[in-house]
Amino acid sequence: IDTTIFSDAREASKVVANEIAGLIRARNQIGQNTVLGLATGSTPIQVYGELVRLHREEGLSFERVVTFNLDEYYPIRPEELQSYVRFMNEYLFDHIDIKKENVHIPDGTLEREDVYKYCKEYEQKIEQVGGLDVQILGIGRTGHIGFNEPGSLEKTRTRLVTLDELTRADAAASFFGEEHVPRRAITMGVGTILKAKKIYLMAWGESKASIIQRSVEGEISAQVPATFLQKHENTKVILDEAAASELT
Ligand code: F6R
To answer: Mind listing the domains of the chain with CATH numbers?
Structure first.
């Protein structure tokens, strides 16, 4: 698995943003869409910051960009502080020229009985636009990608999942207490992610060092869903020195 270690997250994030921008520009030039799979959380924030800068200062246009976010808590309302709709607007969408109709984030407000059909349609929408050109990923300390927690199989698709206790503990601060963290989420599956033509898995900081070592060097297993990325021929693992510190 192709792994690059940078001296810091900012430098690494610029490289990822520039590669994405290069693809968007090439597609814009021939009048074609770029389909991006996006992540939330602290990891991609500087990538989004750099994309916003490229839009403002260097004329990068997102008019032909279509996005699909990996996941959303369930249930959650879009206006809640911790919703991924709010996150994406704040860090990216409010600052670029993307068309509202081209943005897709799993809906945390669905009635329980509507979720199954909705997830199927989310998959169909990705396929209808030609599949994900690029998927960017962070990694949870459980080894989750998206919210595919330990036990998630390679062929899983978009679905309602139960969050791991460690994931809920890691989210407790942003929800002002673990008891306020939703127990479930809607997430793209491992299989959905693996269909992306190109994947960037990013991780920063020593808290990710152990799970990065297991994901990159460990045996492929549903117990660490990120290990399935070892099977994807076009994945780049992008790390800062601290996150890479346990690699052998
Ligand atoms: C977020 C997502 C999660 C996060 C992961 C790491 O959309 O899918 O897998 O990428 O939990 O979160 P941070 O970046 O906050 O450490």
So the answer is: 2-240 (3.40.50.1360)
